[in-house]
Write a structure and sequence with these properties.
five-stranded mixed beta sheet, mainly beta, 1 helix, 2% helix, binds calcium ion, 302 residues
């Protein structure tokens, strides 16, 4: 049975809205939420306690960011992987595994328990199967993990770091893989959640401390919590915007849910009906607790 909980009211953060907001990430050290606007090429940081917001312009599309152990960002940019210095805003490009594929761009990504930065690609014209999922290793080499991906999106690891969950959006599924932390090897792919098309397109994803997956639904006006062991939906939270793109737990006790959304591709009439499209929302004290993010260059000890 699915429960909807009207007590869970998303509130837009008091910051300018995004065109394509994505990749929310809680910085435990600085107690702030970061996210990207992919098409504007900006990285945002918002500190709830002081209500302060800063923007780093990286001057190219940026699909996702992760945190390095030195406090700076690792990023999946239009032209490959790169470090972003949070003080100087300098971008230091590393390698581009898809230099030969100029029609592709990086989409969703996240640091993993192996200390790598996992990020996937898609064709900008959404050509099926044109993308891949890569892992930038701490030694800065790149390994292709999954190929034939159409729109690489949500990534999450189980709390015991033994299962990798992955969303290639057009498949309308969440796939699980056995995952070995040492080396980050994936094996034994199986589908654990089938998402009916009426729900919307499964997009970004996070996991809570009970092992349940939180999935953002592009075109679905919602975020939903699913059980990957039964394939069943447990709860959904409605949003006043259609394109809900990704989610991350944050806040002092990882009990606040931060959710990005997008205005990209909406008609003027649709924007009129959903003026908050592109906002980043928070659901404070949501009743569930997330897991802390991983860091680039550091094997997880959790
Ligand atoms: Ca996405």
């Amino acid at each position: 049975m699915m429960n909807s909980n009207s007590a869970l009211q998303p509130r837009p953060l008091p910051v300018p809205s995004c065109v394509l907001g994505e990749g929310p990430l809680w910085d435990m050290a600085q107690q702030l939420i970061c996210w990207v606007d992919i098409v504007k090429g900006t990285v945002h940081q918002y500190t709830p306690a002081s209500n302060s917001h800063t923007v780093i312009a990286v001057n190219q599309m940026v699909g996702a960011i992760g945190l390095c152990t030195n406090g700076h960002f690792i990023a999946a940019l239009q032209n490959g992987f790169g470090f972003i210095d949070r003080s100087s805003h300098q971008v230091n490009m590393l390698q581009d595994p898809e230099q030969a594929l100029p029609g592709n761009r990086f989409n969703d990504g996240k640091c993993g328990p192996d200390g790598g930065f996992w990020a996937g690609t898609m064709a900008q014209d959404e050509a099926p199967g044109a993308g891949s999922l890569y892992c930038l290793q701490p030694d800065l080499s790149v390994i292709k993990k999954i190929e034939g991906v159409s729109i690489s999106n949500g990534i999450a690891w189980s709390s015991d770091n033994r299962i990798f969950y992955y969303i290639d959006t057009p498949t309308q599924t969440v796939a699980a893989y056995d995952y070995e932390m040492a080396g980050g090897r994936l094996s034994n792919r199986r589908v654990v959640i089938h998402v009916p098309v009426e729900e919307g397109f499964p997009d970004g994803m996070t996991i809570d401390n009970e092992g349940m997956l939180w999935i953002a639904f592009w075109g679905g006006w919602k975020l939903a919590r699913w059980n990957p062991h039964t394939g069943k939906k447990l709860l959904e939270i409605g949003f006043p915007v259609s394109q809900v793109s990704s989610c991350a737990f944050g806040g002092k006790d990882l009990q606040d849910l931060f959710v990005t959304t997008a205005a990209e591709g909406l008609t003027p009439e649709e924007i009129h009906r959903q003026p908050l499209a592109g906002s980043v929302f928070v659901i404070e004290h949501c009743g569930f607790t997330g897991l802390p993010p991983f860091y680039f260059g550091e094997m997880a000890g959790r």
